[in-house]
Design a protein that fits this description.
The protein is of the alpha+beta class and 174 residues long. The protein is built from 5 helices and 7 strands. Helix 1 runs parallel beside helix 2 and helix 2 runs parallel beside helix 3. The longest helix has 13 residues.
Length: 174
């Protein structure tokens, strides 16, 4: 048997790479990303934070702002993209101003309470609009102090990933 196999990209890896590229200083070319609803919502969100993303046939080119984000003019809607919601929750705290993250009906049932608690430990105002630990989420962004925090690791690795992706832009070691 002789064959060539092309492995499809991962929406989770693509969203991580998009966010990291958006935080870097300069252009990043992401080769052969997975194009999906989740990654399209992440790209829309990055653009809302004034991070240019160019889409080519087999690549995304992201022009990062070195962690200097602009607050979006309106709500950020991410459908049912769980990785985007989780990663953008901490990322949004870096932008000065008020940010509202929302999604579809299913997203409004997906818990974020542990991540919100983690942000609260860093004195970031990030609250569930319906007081149920689920989106929509309202965040007052700006300078994120960082510091010592506690986060349970038994529910979702994406909560920790959300913190780690944005931590280099916190004021203090975290």
């Amino acid at each position: 048997l002789k064959a060539t196999v092309t492995i499809p990209g991962s929406k989770s890896y693509t969203n991580r790479a998009l966010l990291i590229a958006g935080l870097t200083d300069g252009d990043c070319r992401l080769e052969k990303p997975l194009v999906s609803d989740d990654t399209k919502y992440m790209i829309q969100a990055l653009r809302a934070f004034s991070i240019p993303v160019q889409e080519e046939k087999d690549a995304f080119i992201v022009s990062g702002k070195g962690g200097k984000l602009s607050a979006p003019e309106g709500d950020i809607f991410i459908g049912n993209a769980g990785t985007a919601m989780r990663f953008l929750t901490t990322f949004s705290a870096l932008a000065p101003g008020s940010i509202r993250l929302d999604g579809d009906e299913r997203m409004r049932e997906r818990p974020l309470a542990d991540l919100l608690d983690c942000l609260k430990q860093m004195k970031i105002k990030a609250i569930s609009e319906n007081n149920n630990g689920c989106p929509p989420i309202n965040i007052e962004g700006g300078e994120v102090p960082g510091g010592e925090i506690r986060l349970a690791g038994d529910k979702s690795s994406q909560y920790l990933t959300s913190i780690l992706l944005s931590a280099p832009y916190f004021s203090h070691n975290t």
